[in-house]
Request: fold
Amino acid sequence: MYVCPSQNITESHLRIFENKKPLAVNTIPSRITRTCGDFEPYTDWSLDEINYLDFKLTKHGWHLNLLREYLSSGQEEKILHLCHYYDYSNLSLFVHWDVVLEILNKPLDRVVHLELLNIDYDAKTTHEDNVKCLNQLNLENFYQVDYHHTLSDSQALHYSIYTKELDHRYTYPNQYMGVQDIGVLYDPEADRLS
Reply:
């Protein structure tokens, strides 16, 4: 999970991580593994038990039906960590944004925390274009939406977009009121939940 100092960690987030049952899709194209760093296929899983889905979008659109089913079934509280499979032909999370919107903008009957991760090592996207895409999301479908724009292995920007539960001890009032003009710079490799 990408957690930076400005990210709001809700009670729901904590409940999910206390009993985390992850699944990673498209980490290796067309293969499902337990977590993002695994290379062995994972076959003994049920969407009814999964509460953390690390889903990589690919130019081939692998497993989009699994993504649709995950959002509408199984655990009541869950996290969707959505990013893209980084290669030179698929350089942005927003390349296939129309397909993503078709899935994410359908009403959900689950508590879903959405973490969007745009890997942009080559600076191919602009903040203005990213904001246009993010503003197309139906934010009311989600419990919380966080956007991470990864610039390198050691630098990323966090944009707190929307939440239904604001922890005022750790979060500023102007956070989670839409996409901010300036993100919070952080190191994505730092482990802040240990």
Summary: The chain has one domain: 11-186.
